Amino acid sequence: MSQSQSSSVNIPQSAPVGGLTITQPPQTATSYYKIAASNTITFGWNFTDVIVTPTHLTVSAVCDNGNTYPVGPTDGIIPGDSKSVTWDIGAYQNAHPNLPLVEATYTLHIWDDRGPGAARQAGLVSENSALKFAMYSPQPYTPLESWTCPTCGGALPDLVAHPVFISLTVTILIMFLSGFSLIRQALR
Asked: What count of other Cβ atoms lies within 10 Å of the Cβ of residue 128?
């Protein structure tokens, strides 16, 4: 990574395709980030086999709902030799009320001057969309006295705990087992 793409550089045909490998956050599991004021996310990467340094990189987060969000303080466009970008998601929320971040899974996309979907070429940065992450919104505090279980409601749990239901269930079970025992003894 020594020269700008605007200079003339001979890239050997045997050179591998350049790329970048995400180092932060770790890709071993999905990372979850809170959509809140002053909350930042730092994405980091290392370049591999890049012979020609791009002029700039474009970083964006693509949501499962199809919306695309620019990542970083400069609307997603950062210098080509950058190895990380920090995104203040709280500041983004305040500055973009018409396209707010939502609770969902996102895919981080990073590409060079050639744009998204550019053909892979030896020595040049290839687009990377390997990182998935998720965002969530904090919920307001609910005092225990006013909390209700959203999945506990319904008549079935009350019916199962009612003494008449329990008595009937035990009676039917005893009748079935006694009848089975009588039939077994009669067949001997």
From this structure: 17
Q: Calculate the CA dihedral of residues 50, 56, 61, 66 and round it to 10 degrees.
A: -100
> Token pair 């609770």 is at which residue?
103
Look up residue 13 and give its two tokens.
């045909």
| Spatial contact of 138 and 38, defined as CB atoms under 8 Å apart | no
* Distance of alpha carbon 45 from alpha carbon 37, whole angstroms: 25
Q: What is the DSSP string of 128-146?
A: EEEEEEEEE-PPPP--GGG
Task: Please report, for residues 39, 85, 88, 110, 180, the alpha-carbon distance to residue 70 in angstroms, rounded to integers and kept in the order given.
Answer: 16, 11, 11, 10, 71
Determine the Cα–Cα distance for residues 103 and 106; give it in Å rounded to an integer.
9
Task: Report the chain's mean pLDDT, rounded to a whole number.
Answer: 87
Q: How many CB atoms lie within 10 A of CB 9?
A: 13
Q: Rounded to an integer, what distance in angstroms lies between the CA atom of residue 23 and that of residue 11?
A: 26
Tell me the whole-structure pTM to 2 decimals.
Answer: 0.70
Query: From CA 49, how far away is CA 52, in angstroms rounded?
Result: 9
153 pLDDT band (50/70/90 cuts)?
low
